[in-house]
Amino acid sequence: MNFTSTKKAPVYFWIVGIIALFWNAFGVYNYLMQAFMTTEQSTQLSKAEHNLYDDLPMWYISVFAIAVFAGLLAAISWLLRKKWAYSLFIISFLAVGIQQFYVLTEINPRDIFLPLISIVLALFLVWFSKRAIAREWLK
Fold it and tell me: Per the confidence metrics, is the pTM higher than 0.85?
C-alpha cells in the first residue's frame, strides 16, 4: 500500500501557499513588534495608541500569538504538502475569530475592513486545505 501522493498540485495551490506564508509571516512580525516594543518605541506612539497597547488583556496577546504562529506553521506545512496544515489552519482560524471579535467589539467597531479580511482569509485557508486533502495535494 502506497501512502504517498503522486497527485501533482496545480500552480494555484502554490500561489495560495505563498500568499498564506507571507500573510502569516507579516502577522508574526506584527505580533513580535507589539510584544517586544521597547520603551523608546512606545514613547513615539500617540497617547491613544499607547493607551491601547497598555490596555490590551493578556489573553488577547496570547490569542494573537496563537493565531499568527499557528498560521505560519500551517503555511509552511502547506508548502511542504503536509496534511496537518489543515489542523493548524483550524487553530489559527479559531484564534483569529476570537481576536478579531475583541477588536470589533472593544477596540474599534468602526474599522471593520482588516478584521473581516483576516477572518475571511483564515476561513478560506481552512476550507481550501480540506479541499487539498480531498484532492490528495496534501498528504
Answer: yes
